[in-house]
From TrEMBL:
Annotated GO biological process: methylglyoxal catabolic process to D-lactate via S-lactoyl-glutathione
Organism: Phlebiopsis gigantea (strain 11061_1 CR5-6) (White-rot fungus)
UniProt record similarity statement: Belongs to the peptidase C56 family. HSP31-like subfamily.
InterPro entries for the chain: Class_I_gatase-like, DJ-1/PfpI, Prot/Nucl_acid_deglycase
Descriptive protein name: D-lactate dehydratase
């Protein structure tokens, strides 16, 4: 039986200053097409069906996979029927993957349902993964001792310098790089916009949009061990 992977997307469509946001197209599309031939993928979001996409990412990313993802009838159905996060059980999946976009910093980071779910995945030794701003969904997650899953581990995510470059510092409640460090994690990064993936046990993180496909490959490799 194929491994089951849960893609979690934000339900937030506005930043702190009211700018449009959501989940980031290539950060869903690129890992999806790495994993889809080998796994069963379900989508979920705090509010369930039709999680909002970051419209800027649609305009910015016109690569084959991103365009294909938007037109893919299977994907459209998965998005339209995305589960409400409160109805999801970690026991039903082998891995969780948090899609980036600024949205996760605004809702998933503090959503108690998500915090509990992410903690369950991690504590069960299941792959707990995220890319770009997706690791923000893990900042509340804890291990079996109630300690942040970042403490004593190496991780990456959207960097402070990348956040400054896109002029979104005021759009979100915290900077991901800073928060990982505050939680006791060892934050590492590549040059801005270059791909970077960190695997530390069952925690898999990617830095930015360019890291999304490589994160998908790291998840697949971990599932196939």
């Amino acid at each position: 039986m194929a491994p089951r992977v849960l893609f979690v997307l934000t339900s937030t469509d506005k930043t702190l200053t009211g700018k449009q946001t959501g989940w980031y197209l290539p950060e869903a599309a690129h890992p999806y097409y790495v994993l889809a031939p080998h796994t069963e993928i379900d989508f979920a979001a705090p509010a369930g069906p039709n999680p909002p996409i970051d419209e800027a990412s649609v305009k910015m990313f016109t690569d084959d996979e991103s365009v294909r993802f938007l037109a893919d009838e299977t994907v459209k159905t998965k998005l339209a029927t995305a589960a409400v996060l409160a109805d999801v059980r970690a026991a039903d999946y082998d891995a969780v993957f948090y899609v980036g976009g600024h949205g996760p910093v605004l809702d998933l980071a503090t959503d108690p349902v998500n915090v509990a779910l992410a903690s369950q995945f991690f504590q069960a030794g299941k792959i707990t993964s995220a890319v770009c701003h997706g690791p923000a969904a893990l900042v509340g997650a804890v291990d079996a001792q109630g300690v942040s899953i970042f403490k004593g581990r190496t991780a990456t995510g959207f960097s402070n310098s990348e956040e400054v470059a896109v002029d979104k510092v005021k759009e979100i409640p915290f900077l991901l790089e800073d928060r990982i460090v505050e939680l006791g994690g060892s934050y590492v990064k590549a040059d801005d916009w270059a791909p970077k993936v960190v695997v530390d046990g069952n925690l898999i993180t990617g830095q930015n949009p360019a890291s999304a496909g490589p994160v998908g490959k790291a998840i697949l490799a971990a599932l196939q061990k």
